[in-house]
Amino acid sequence: MVRKTVVFVAAVVIGATAAAPATAQSSGPAAAPAPAGSVQLNVNTAINQSLVDKYVRDAPNVALAKCEGASPKFSSPALDFANYTPGPFMGADANISADATLKPGTGAGTYPLTVTCGGQTYTTNFTVPAAQVAKVPSGAAKAGDGSMAG
What are phi and psi of 92, to 5 degrees? Predict the structure, then answer.
């Protein structure tokens, strides 16, 4: 009796599967996916995992973008760009890069970074940290000069 029940249940399941309507058919051509693009400042490294979209003072900075189309162009009110280079690049999903230098007089804050190519525009924001004190204040003790000796 058990064997007949198992055979009957299996036959019902197989029959239901074969009779199920196909719902994954398409009636026309599939729409092309929108071109994916992105822009960022700098790439994380094995040593520092927090470099993306942060300007690093006293170090090289690189704008990177993934976009389709001719003549990619980076822009930012805080950065100048030079040496456009085609990719790919290790550590970043990008196909174009450019050296990025901070414009003189730019203060700490958050600024936009944009790339335009092939009629598409992609934007991100990056941060510029406050400048560190570059000059030792006059009258400050200097290590090793004997000024601390009594």
Answer: -145, 140
Residue 43 phi/psi, 5° resolution? -130, 140
- Residue 141 carries which DSSP code? -
Statement: residue 109 has pLDDT above 50? yes
The per-residue pLDDT for range 67-79, each reduced to its tens digit, is 988 889 999 999 9
Phi, psi of 115, deg, nearest 5: -125, 140
Tokens for 130?
Answer: 């406050």
d(CA 101, CA 66): 20
pLDDT exceeds 60 at position 80 = yes
d(CA 34, CA 28): 18
**Peptide bond preceding 77 in cis form (omega within 30 of 0):** no
What 3-state DSSP class applies to 127? strand
Cβ proximity of 39 and 94 under 8 Å: no
pTM of the model: 0.65
CA distance 103 to 80: 6
Order the strands of the 61-66 sheet from edge to edge.
38-41, 61-66, 96-102, 79-86
At residue 13, does pLDDT exceed 60? Answer: no
In sequence order, what are the beta bridge partners of 52? Answer: none
